[in-house]
Amino acid sequence: MTDAERETVRAFISRHVHDLKVGDDEDLFATGYVNSLFAVQLVMWIERTFDVPLEGTDLDFANIRSVSAIGAFVDRKREALAGGGGWTST
Amino acid sequence: MGTAGAVTYRIALDPPVPRTHANELSTRVFFVSEAIRDFALVPSESPSASPSGGGSGGEAGIGAVRVTVDEGTDLDDLARKVRFVVANDVLRQRRPEPKVVWRGTADGTVRDVFDDLRGRGAVWEAGEGQIGVGEPVLSLMDRLDGRIRALVAAEFGAEEHRYPTLIPTSAMRRCGYLRSFPQLTMFVARLHGDVDTYRTFLDELAAGADPSGALRSHAGDADHCLPPTMCFHTYHRFADAPLPGGAATVTARGKSFRYEARYRRSLERLWDFTIREVVLLGPRDRVLADRRRLMERAWDLMDDLGLGGRCEVAGDPFFADAGTAERVWSQHLLELKYELRLPLDGDRDVAVASFNFHDRFFGESFGIGGADGPVHTSCAGFGLERLAYAFLCRHGADPARWPARVRKAVEG
């Protein structure tokens, strides 16, 4: 994930935590500023913005819990998708 | 179908419902309409919907619901209702892979003993979803409850409280229960307080009127509900004030009520049942850690009782509201709910306990102040009829034949 993309993730999150500064490794859902439905919005937004589907085992809290986790997930997913058909997620 | 006054009708689903979502559909069909007496999900040959709109989709799913309904039912209207629930509650869900966090081991086989219990007079079907119990079910429920109560007192210093049965409708509304579970809510009805109302009501009954119809004409306010579980009483009790010390652990046992329509079954799914509940209130890290520790102690107890089973991530049966599907899949995604499930026979199992984390939802909705803003909460509920029933399906209906080790464990 490029620095610009990472900044896009930070900006999206920032809009949902009342412009609070959230560290890249900080657990978004422990801030107390987002409710559980934010997880659903975040999944849909990641799919739309980075054009990676989240299905089955991808739908794991560990993949969306922080800016860093989202970055790592998108990178893994792109690598798998670029590898041709029948991608699997980790 | 052989049922008198009933017709069978096939409601096609286009696109088909994915097999991964079949359970979400089958747990909602009876709530679509009371006209539905029975139903079956019909597999489809064509590919099912891919809820995300991306990916491969692909597998055959559920292509129709075959319903048996009262004769004279408006079938087009019923199909509209079924398709609304499929689109709103089911298809919009995404289903993460099932996640099991614990598996127990147990000796021997497990067999449904409901008929044995009925034969022995240990259970008596008082009405729909209502079952009276005698020995050995009665003592077993009390003893299992005693083990849980002792565990939460020793481990968490839980304070015991006993609540009235009735709970104000305003408390249930305040936390969105009515929006979340309108299908389960049990209201307490009474006549409007007026001497002429009572006299007219009695006159109508004496003239042969149906009590339900007469009540509808003369009912008072629906200002109280029967509680669906005990935790709402605890939030109501601490409402609109700072929580002393910023944390509390409360346990209560009480009768709980959920209208389960035709899903009612044996001691597995009752409208009127008993819950031992533990509510954890306090800072986020503490209530999450305590929820985990409580789950682990519950698993130890299942091992001690020789019950087997598993504990897995689960969701609630939210129904027919805007955002219903999203709420179910965010629960799964964030692992807000775990269920402890025990087998009843070779195919079926039942959730005997759930362990829930609500973040600040109840702290906010009930105005319960914590150390730093609204308090965080978790709660765990143990269904005592279900737990006793799963125990009896594992160890048999005759206490004399329970393994000595198990008998000792029950007696604590």
TrEMBL record, chain A:
It holds the Pfam family PP-binding. Residues 1-78 form the Carrier domain. PROSITE patterns: CARRIER (PS50075). Gene3D superfamilies: ACP-like (1.10.1200.10). It comes from the Bacteria. InterPro entries: ACP-like_sf, PP-bd_ACP. This is Acyl carrier protein. It comes from Actinomadura viridis.
Automatic annotation (TrEMBL), chain B:
Residues 254-399 form the Aminoacyl-transfer RNA synthetases class-II family profile domain. Gene3D superfamilies: Bira Bifunctional Protein, Domain 2. Signal peptide: none annotated. Coiled coil: none annotated. InterPro entries: aa-tRNA-synth_II, aa-tRNA-synth_II/BPL/LPL. This is Aminoacyl-transfer RNA synthetases class-II family profile domain-containing protein.
